[in-house]
Amino acid sequence: MGTAAVVVLVVLAVVVVAVAAWAVSGYNGLVRRRNNYHNAFAQTDVQLTRRHDLIPNLVETAKGYMRHEQQTLEQVTAARTGAVQAQEQARSNPGEPGAMQELSGAESALTQSLGRLLAVSESYPDLKASQNMTQLSEELTSTENRVAFARQAYNDAVLSYNNKRETFPTNLLAGAFNFGPAEPLIIEEPEQRQAPDVSF
């Protein structure tokens, strides 16, 4: 075998090793970023569960004072049920676009119905003065802030993952190994981006 043939074989071997190293590094980078957004969603999931668990107590407390607002209370309860169901779907496959869009819509509906409940409750001075309602509203405010922070961390992790999977040359690996896009958790209406005002 001549010197030229040996040089060609060495060059080919170096190229193969370099491509393999790039492929392993790119694949592992995608896995790490996917795991990061899964973990970030798990933190969001904890805060959403806490939010959902507070709402029945809030509705029950308000029920004693707001006998003429049954429809508002029912809307909050129905919105909570929808949000819990959407959360369960998203929990089974974090980042999956359909599940995350469903969760975004359900959480938006819940935020709107809570806003209506809290606005109507302003007309009930005894409810506003209730120690139980005050404590629940403080817990809800705290939880809304935690949800916002957890959601931002999740969205940042999704952005990092999506950037990695969409940029060349990693996008070649993403397609070959079925790394699909991840969906952020977004509340589209600007007024819904703020936590509801729950001061009493």
Task: List key phrases describing it.
mainly alpha, de novo design (two linked rop proteins), about 200 residues, single chain, about 80% helix, 6 helices
Task: Provide structural commentary.
- With 200 residues, this protein is mainly alpha-helical.
- It contains 6 helices and no strands.
- The protein has a single domain, classed as de novo design (two linked rop proteins).
- It has helices at 3-63, 70-92, 97-121, 125-129, 131-166, 170-176.
- The radius of gyration is 25 Å and the shape is rod-shaped.
Brief overview, please?
The protein is mostly helical and 200 residues long. The protein has helices at residues 3-63, 70-92, 97-121, 125-129, 131-166, 170-176.
